Amino acid sequence: QVQLVESGGGLVQAGGSLRLFCAASGRTFSSYVMGWFRQAPGKEREFVAAISSTGFSTRYADSVKGRFTISRDNAKNTVYLQMNSLKPEDTAVYYCAGRRGQLLGVSYSDSANFDSWGQGTQVTVSS
Questions:
Q1: For the chain, what is the HEC assignment?
Q2: What is the tens place of the pLDDT at every residue in 52-103?
Q3: In whole angstroms, what is the distance from residue 121 CA to residue 85 CA?
Q4: What are the contacts of 40-46 at 24+ separation with CB within 8 A?
């Protein structure tokens, strides 16, 4: 497993932008599919975005498509989530997750398939 540490969360007004960072330890990061999930108070954890091990393939939840962009830099062991046009409903704790593999497959949005998790970073969007 890789160890994951998120950063970049904070308070932003609706319409603003934030960039989340997820730093991974270990030399196997480039062999991991990575994802971002989020959990709002009183709600279940939900899929946000995923990226293949090479970065060539990405997938997004419908609720963030066109506003969020996931990317990675395997040389820096880091995955990013650029969030634009933020809405109050984007308020949540955002978690970085990883699993061994190259391709996204059909289960890219299922959190049960990810076995490495960060501690989360809070994103709050005010109206």
A1: CCCEEEECCEEEECCCCEEEEEEECCCCHHHEEEEEEEECCCCCCEEEEEECCCCCCEEECCCCCCCEEEEEECCCCEEEEEECCCCHHHCEEEEEEEEECCCCCCCCCCHHHCCEECCCEEEEEEC
A2: 999 999 999 999 999 999 999 999 999 999 999 999 999 999 999 999 988 8
A3: 19
A4: 40/89, 40/91, 40/92, 40/93, 43/92, 45/95, 45/111
Dihedral pair phi/psi, residue 4, rounded to 5°: -120, 135
**Lookup: tokens for 92:** 């949540």
Structure confidence by residue, pLDDT tens digits, 99-112 = 998 888 888 999 99
